[in-house]
Structure formats: structure tokens, C-alpha cells
Amino acid sequence: MPLTEPHDDHFSAEEESVVGARAAGEASGTPDPDATPGGESGPEPEPVLPEPVRQRIVALTAAVLPGLPADEVPVPLRRVAKFAPNRRARLGAPAIAAQLTADPLFRQRVTARVLADAGDLGAAVLEGTAPAAADPVEVAALAYLARPRGWRDLIEASGAAVRAEADSAIVAELVREAEQRATRAEHDRAVARVEADKLRDELARVREELGQLREEARQLTRTLRETQARERKATELLATERGRAARAAADADAELRRTRARLAEAEAAAGVARASAKEARSVDDAKLWLLLETIGQAAVGLRRELALDPVDRMPADFVADAFADQSATTQAGAAARARDTDDPARLDQLLALPKAHLVVDGYNVTKRGFGEMSLEQQRKRLISGLGGIAAQTGDEVTVVFDGAERIHGLPPTPRGVRVLFSRKGETADELIRRLVRAEPAGRPVVVVSSDREVADGVRRHGAYPLGADSLLRRLARS
């Protein structure tokens, strides 16, 4: 191919301007060695160079280009000479090729440098010979630059050698590809043999499993027949049992009718018995009323004989005074006579006794009934409810709270309700037991607390302990 064949690389704007300024047709006046004698005809056309030879010529020229004096470098190549070594031959190839073709003087200057660097090989090329061991591409490149006698033959021989090498490379590549395909085919045959062995093994396993499945199918068929036979027998037994169940249901209906008749007779007898019991109770109530009236008259006479004046202070008031004065008084208690229960009806029965005293464990009741409120709201709600009970029953009511000091800001205490706070070093449970011990023997004292220790303690002193739920139900009912 010609030396000035276009190059495929991309250029920057600056490099394109340099490459574009090739000196096509601006050859110097130095005659070419290959010009025909007499100067009648122009120089012979440039030979078609193999691509490796063309690239080598450009590389040799680009290598010596920076070493030339500035005035010996053609104007279009002066910018190219300043490129980096790895970019000079790649980007300046078109301009270098054009100058080598059009400027014989420049080519001669480049040839002198290149031959000096080539040494013995350069001398051999100048003599028109090529060593057998020399690289044909290098020989052709030197022959093109030096252009000794018979240089076109050297280039032609180099092209033939390059083409032979290319053909050899192609043949070698084809042989290598054929060997690779043979290797792959052999590998594929080995893999196919392995897969065939696997498939034969799999087929044998499938046949064995198929035999097992056929045997299982035969067993399942026998089992199905047996199951169907048992189902027929079960159906027959079920029909028999349904007949028996129908007869049993008829017998049960007859027995139910007889039982209902006996129940009606029993209800009639119970009505007669209730009427008789009511009449007997009326007689007992009349006797009891007469006894209580007699006891009441006797008590009036006894109080007149003992000259007992009415009192304006209750025993719990003395306990409260002693509590305020940081002193304690104790009296003997009575024998235990109470039961523990949460029934509000039991509470009503006890509060109906004459001169009953209701003692309440304050926080034990409030935290159980409305613990979601603040302590102040709990106290207000309990005290207000106890005021209603005191107004309804006329009984004495005392509510006890834990507290080292009396809490200020309490609402006005309802009439008939006493509010106490335990002092420092004393709990509300201990204060409740003091109140119970202060009461006279025989007076009904009702203590409301779900604390088992409090209930056991006051029971030993003759009080009636009740759970907090009894009072909460009583308050909810009010």
C-alpha cells in the first residue's frame, strides 16, 4: 500500500491542524535517485508497501525526528517533532509519510540518521543485499529510506516474506482452532459418555421405582377392597345402632315426661311447705319481738337505776385524742365472733346493729376500687361515699389513712365521719387495731380491709372484718 495511506487514529484539534499541514506537492528541487535519465519523465510511482513496512518506516522517522536540527525539519513536521514519543508516530504518521514521499532531501537526512543507528544491517542494505537472518520488515524499511540499487526488489521480497508469515500465522491459527475444536469435541464426547452412563443409571433406578410403585399400587388396591368391606360392615352396624338410638330416645322422652310429672308434684309440695314455714316464722317473729321488748324495758330500768347520763364522746374520740397527744391507751378486747366476707348484704346487716362503728382501711379500699386516680381524688371519693353511709345509717364511721403528718387541703369532713392519719412510726393497720381495742366489749365494730393481717388482728379483739369489695359494692349501690 502507499506510504501515505490514511491513519485511523483520532486527533486533537491542535494535532489535526499539524497533520493537515502536510507538504503534499511541495517537494524540494532535489532530484530523486529513481528519476529517469534526461529528466524527460517524472519519478517512478511509489511502490505499494505492506502495512508492517509502512508502520516501521514511520516509526524510524518519528524516532530520529527530534534529533534533526530545526532548520532541517520541514515546516509541517516541526509541531509533530514536539509530540511525546508514544504519540509522535501514531498521530503524525500521515504528515511524516507525506514528507518522506514529497521531500527527498528530508528523506536523505532521515536515512543518514537511521543507517547510522542500523550499523551492519544498514551497510548491507546500501550494498543492495539483505542478510538471511535479518528481519524482512526492517530490511524493506531501510531499503525504502536509503533507496539503493534494486531497492524495489528488496521491498517486494520483504512483502512476499511478510505475506508468507501472515499466511503461516493464518494457517497456524486455523490449525490451533482445529485442534481446539477437536479437543472440545473429544471433551464433549467424554461428557456425552458420562451423561449416557448417568441416564442409563437413572433409567435403571426409574425402572426399579416403577416396579416398587406397581407393587405399592397392588397393595393399595387390596387395602382399598378391605376398607370398602369394612365400610359396608360399619354402615350395617350404624343402621342397627340408629334403630337402637331411636328406641332409646323414645324411652328417654317417656322417662322425661314422667320426671316432669314428679317435678310438678314436688313443686306443689314445696309450695305447701313454704306456706307452713312462713306461718311458723311469723310465730317466731312474734315471740322474738316480745323478748326484745322485754329486754328493752329492762335496759331502760337498769340505765335509770345506774343513773347513766348520755355521753357526747365515743371511744374512738379518745383514741383520736390520744393519737394527737402522741400517747396510746389500750383496753381488753372481746372474744372473736366475726366472719370474713365481701357480701355487701353482710355489711348492711352489721351496720343495722345498734350503735355500730364502721372502721375503714382507707388506701386499701381506694387502691382496690379506683387506683387510677390520684391519692387526693381517692381520699375525696371515699370520704364522700362514707358520708352518705353515715347519713343513711346514723352509725359512727372512722376512716384511717397512712401518713406521717396530717395532710392539708382535705375537703370538709361529712357529718358522722372521722378521718385519721397514722403518725410517724405507726402504720394505718396499727392505728385500726388501737381503735378496735378501745371499743367496749359487746359493741359491734365493723372493720373494712382486704389485708389478711388486719382482718386476723381485729377478729381476735371481737370486731367483724369484711373485705374491701363489700364496701365498694355498697358505695356503688348508693
From TrEMBL:
It comes from the Bacteria. Residues 175-269 form a coiled coil. Residues 1-49 are annotated as: Disordered. Residues 1-13 have a biased composition (Basic and acidic residues). Pfam families: NYN_YacP. Keywords: Coiled coil. PANTHER family: YACP-LIKE NYN DOMAIN PROTEIN. This is RNA-binding protein. It comes from Micromonospora solifontis.
